[in-house]
Amino acid sequence: MADKTLTRMDLAEAVHNEVGLSRNDSANLVESVLSHISDALVAGESVKISSFGTFSIRDKSARVGRNPKTGEEVPIHPRRVLTFRPSHLMKDRVAAGNKG
Amino acid sequence: MIRSELIQKIADENPHLYQRDVERIVGTVFDEIIDAMASGDRVELRGFGAFSVKKRDSRIGRNPRTGEAVEVEEKAVPFFKTGKLLRDRLNGK
To answer: What are A1-15's pLDDT values in tens digits?
Structure first.
């Protein structure tokens, strides 16, 4: 298994190669995709990208946690968390590509 | 928000681009993330989150209808961890 880490720059490079926009414009468009997704989530909307997956927001209620090192009880405040559910296509491709 | 609405928002902000190019751009971003994970790579998008691949060990599953034990092979599954900035923004920080 290769274990590279891709970043925004690699996504921008892919857009540059695919569409032929400048690297700078490509980078701005990648950023724009991410910020529209973030903004929708922050507004409480879920984001469903067909054949990729669904980002959704869940509300977690307050609970009492415990510092595992000291055993001390600490309150955990109610919060919103993001979950990502991959599409079947993504699951199948990731499973097939990492076999054995 | 769904894929087509995301494409529309980006098209509206970029009137100099053809709609079909915006579709290709958005498609390329998502395909590239899937391709990376299919090769076992991570995609780290600071402030947004990171996509990575997790291994699930093989296990003995059960056919829920018949109760029969079946061997489930080890497999790789996609995983997303929310970035700190987005996590904070979701909680109004």
So the answer is: 557 999 999 999 999
B-chain CB neighbours of A79 within 8 Å are 90-91
CA distance A93 to chain B (A): 6
Do residue B14 and residue A29 have CB atoms under 8 angstroms apart? yes
Share of chain A above pLDDT 70, in %: 97
Q: What are the boundaries of each domain within chain B?
A: 1-40, 42-93
A11–B44 C-beta distance less than 8 A: no
Distance CA A98, CA A83 (A): 23
In the predicted model, residues of chain A with pLDDT beneath 70 are: 1-2, 100
A window 36-75, beta carbon within 8 A of B: 36-38, 40-42, 45-53, 55, 57
Query: For domain B42-93, is the CATH number 4.10.520.10?
Result: yes
Instruction: Please tell me the predicted confidence (pLDDT) of residue A2.
Output: 56
Q: Cα separations (Å) of A83 from A3, A58, A95, B57, B82?
A: 24, 7, 20, 22, 8
Distance CA A5, CA B50 (A): 10
